[in-house]
Amino acid sequence: MKKIFHKILSVLMAFVVMFTTMSFTVDMHYCGDSLVDFSFFTKAETCGMEKVQATTGCENPIMSKKSCCSDQKIVKENIDDLKTSFNKLTFEQQTFVATFFYTYINLFEGLDENIVPFKDYSSPFIERDVQTLYETYLI
Fold first, then answer.
1. Residues forming beta bridges with residue 74, ordered by sequence position
2. DSSP state, residue 15
3. CA 46 to CA 30: how far, in whole Å?
4. Whole-angstrom Cα distance, residue 87 to residue 94?
5. What is the rounded CA–CA span in Å between residue 97 and residue 105?
6. Whole-prediction pTM value?
7. How many CB atoms lie within 10 A of CB 2?
8. Most buried residue among 13, 38, 85, 105 by CB atoms closer than 10 A?
9. How far apart (Å, rounded) are the C-alpha atoms in residues 133 and 127?
10. Which tens digits make up the pLDDT trace of 71-129?
11. How far, in Å, CA of 70 to CA of 46, rounded?
12. In Å, how far are 5, 8, 9, 13 from 2, measured between CA atoms?
């Protein structure tokens, strides 16, 4: 259960980093108070009211009125303050990284053979089984 929680949390944190460093634009077109179209990556399509007003001519009093259509754009800028380069390490940081990798690699280095320290000794001679003699058993 703990491993599953860690995997879910790591995927969630990867998405958080991805979405904070990514920029996107939401473009919306309103006709009156109703939303006609919205788009994430391209310009939103219009409802066609602008074309009707442009073909009527300049002397028409409809053109003097403000258009009922409006466009709204929401821009989410990315965060550029992430430290992306690690090529400028101080001497203390270099020594820390070197010792960390050295100890980490040697941590998993196993023994070549199993060493049994009591291999050369014989087992003690048991004259009688004391536990069955006195009938004392550990439960």
1. 26
2. H
3. 8
4. 11
5. 12
6. 0.39
7. 6
8. 38
9. 11
10. 888 888 877 666 666 678 889 999 999 999 998 888 876 766 777 888 888 888 888 88
11. 9
12. 5, 10, 10, 16
CA 119 from centre of chain? 53
Neighbour count for residue 118 (Cβ, 10 Å): 7
Rounded Cα–Cα distance for residues 102 and 99 (Å): 5
C-alpha distance from residue 98 to each of 82, 84, 107, 128 (Å): 24, 20, 14, 59
Q: List, in sequence order, the alpha helices (H) in the chain.
A: 2-21, 49-55, 61-64, 91-107, 130-134
| Residue for token pair 């998405």 | 15
Compute CA 51 distance to the chain's CA centroid, rounded to the nearest angstrom.
Answer: 45
The distance between the two most distant Cα atoms of the chain, rounded to a whole number of Å, is 124
